[in-house]
Specification:
By secondary structure, the protein is mainly β. Helix content is about 10%, strand content about 45%. It has a four-stranded antiparallel beta sheet, with no helix packed on it. Strands 5-12-9-10 form a four-stranded antiparallel beta sheet, with no helix packed on it. The protein has a two-stranded antiparallel sheet with strand order 2-3.
Length: about 200
């Protein structure tokens, strides 16, 4: 084998190696999420009859608070190879989970208020929809797409449920009702709650 032939073979080997590699093998996008919990004050139903020191309280008004947002799918990424998507997250409380949280303020503050949070996250590849559902406690969360998006298009969409009655996120449901048994853990203060979520696509 002469030198010229050796050089040609080396060049072909390099081209084959480059051609079989999925460039940009891991890319991430971070979403900073926030919600505002409205101020809410409730007084007991009236009138209250007071007779010689006896006060009669009627049934408490029971109103639950919850939130939900649904986002239509959007063009999230370009990929030309099979990939794994991994979703991670964190919040101001440093839980390492995409759970909405807010630090209490004031001289009697006692830590972070948090909301149970569930995500339904969907990806559209080759016109086929695949999704995963996970409560914040189960993150990080990942799944794979074994076939390359042949048009390169990766669409993403989600629904986020906050303080929903059927959530199983290891956080009690926050209720807006008068209950003398409540502790600071049972109620959440008004204000801005935040968390972050990062979606990473990696070639497989």
């Amino acid at each position: 084998m002469n030198k010229r032939t050796s050089r040609i073979l080396i060049v072909l080997a390099v081209l084959l190696l480059v051609g079989s590699t999925c460039f940009g093998q891991s890319k991430s996008t971070t979403f900073n999420l926030s919600l505002y919990l409205n101020e809410y004050i409730e007084t007991m139903p009236g009138p209250v009859s007071v007779d010689l020191g006896h006060t009669f309280h009627y049934d408490y008004f029971n109103a639950e608070t919850y939130g939900m947002v649904e986002l239509n799918p959007w063009d999230f990424a370009y990929a030309n190879c099979p990939f794994r998507v991994t979703i991670t997250g964190d919040n101001p409380a440093g839980e390492g989970k995409p759970r909405f949280a807010r630090l209490e303020t004031g001289p009697h503050a006692n830590g972070y208020d948090t909301f149970s949070t569930r995500y339904f996250i969907g990806f559209w590849i080759n016109g086929i929809y695949g999704y995963g559902a996970a409560d914040a406690k189960n993150f990080p969360y990942s799944w794979e797409y074994a076939e390359a998006p042949h048009n390169g298009q990766v669409k993403m969409g989600w629904s986020i449920y906050v303080n929903w009655p059927d959530l199983q996120d290891s956080v009690p449901m926050r209720q807006t009702l008068i209950n003398p048994a409540f502790t600071w853990r049972d109620s959440v203060d008004a204000g801005v709650y935040t968390c972050s979520m990062t979606a990473t696509l990696g070639a497989i």
